[in-house]
Amino acid sequence: MRICFVVDKFPTLSETFVLDQIAGCLEREMEVSVVCNEMAFGKDSNVDDARWRTLPGPVVSWWGGLSRYRSLLRKWSGRFWDKLSTFIDVANAHKLRNVDVIVAHFGHNGLRVARIMKRRRISAPLVTIFHGTDVGRPMHDNALGYYRPVFEQGALQLPVNAFFRQALIDAGAEPAQVAVHHMGIRPGEIEYRWRSWQGRTLSFISVCRLTEKKGTEYALRALAGLPHRDWIYSVIGGGELLEQLKRTAIDLGIADRVTFLGPRPHDEVKQRLRDAHVFLLPSVAGRDGDLEGIPVALMEAMAGGLIAVSTYHSGIPELIEDRKTGFLVPERDVAALAGKLAWIAENPGLCEPIALAARRKVEADFNADILNERFAQIVARLGETGSVT
């Protein structure tokens, strides 16, 4: 079985779900190749694994030597970008031939492949995996119909949550061709360890890019109103809001208990997670429509024994059930978030069974080994019959 993955950058730490899915296919002796906009070998030691350099199939840049000019062409071509980029995509369509199934991660890559298929340059079944921004922003602009070529040419759409599935169906996708396929983690690689904060400093942590949709501002504001005063908060990650969030912590009078660590090596992140008690990710819909799928960071925290606190946002309620596997509050509701954090601070004993239930939830429904087996069965059926039934 020959599978070609179409991605933006390969390999990259920000898309470990892609790497894990590829690893799952390799473990099942499938022949994997990759077509990408940018090859990133050697740029991140956390994903600099020999497996990605020695795939059974080739790893190639979609545009070849023109890739370095992609951002400039997009800027210069303006409203003609769609036509120009599609012309170059079609000229390089041979890189997507001689495979049994094409798997495009993110809607825009599925759209690129679908436009080539419409011109009858390739014929392998197309599976498009929708993750978050690729659904949220078009929804915000009432433009999900933009994906109609994907719906018409593609064999299967795999949104990562039920919220996105309904959005795609509402935009014209055939319900029988849209199925939820969660991203997951390998819980067997994460040690579960409950850590009570009874009589100790309560340690909160966030690991995320500091963008609007991660809601870090609301975490800071809720912590500022926390009656329980013996706490610290570590924020790992960089992003455009870093300096603004530092100023917010100062303005709230909590800068002495909040540490912005910036991006950190993966081993250090894992250790800091092991030392923390509560994982904060109060996600919100960005003003531009940017949405979460179901954040992998929440799964990892729950697998490790942390109490996860998030929001009723996108697919997150498919992972967290309030007061059963974690805690949820409405988006941007600082008072509700502060109330949940105060309850957690005062009830470490009652939180322990919640942490254990969270681990079991991840093992049952977000286990990458199980999900990769399911995914392999899907693509195998497609490659053999052209149908998922």
Structural notes for this entry:
The chain is an alpha/beta fold and 389 residues long. It has two domains: 202 residues, Glycogen Phosphorylase B (Rossmann fold); 180 residues, Rossmann fold, CATH 3.40.50.2000. 40% of the residues lie in helices and 16% in strands. The chain contains 15 helices and twelve strands. The strands form two sheets. It has a six-stranded parallel beta sheet with strand order 3-2-1-4-5-6. A six-stranded parallel beta sheet has the order 9-8-7-10-11-12, with helices on both faces. Strand 7, helix 9 and strand 8 form a beta-alpha-beta unit. It is globular. The relative contact order is 0.12.
Compact description:
GO terms for molecular function: glycosyltransferase activity. Residues 15-183 form the Glycosyltransferase subfamily 4-like N-terminal domain. The protein contains 15 helices and 12 strands.
β-sheet strand percentage? 15-25%
- The total tally of domains equals 2
CATH superfamily placement of the largest domain: Glycogen Phosphorylase B
Largest sheet features:
6 strands, parallel
Q: What is the CATH architecture term of the largest domain?
A: 3-Layer(aba) Sandwich
Percent of residues in helical segments?
A: 40-55%
Q: How many alpha or pi helices?
A: 15
Radius of gyration: 22 Å
Strand-pairing-aware structural class = alpha/beta
How are the strands of the biggest sheet laid out side by side? Answer: 3-2-1-4-5-6
Name of the top-level CATH class of the largest domain? Alpha Beta
Query: Which overall shape is indicated by the principal axes computed on the Cα atoms?
Result: globular
User: How far apart are the termini?
Assistant: 18 Å
| Total DSSP E strands | 12
H-E string = EHEHEHHEHEHHEHEHEHEHEHEEHHH
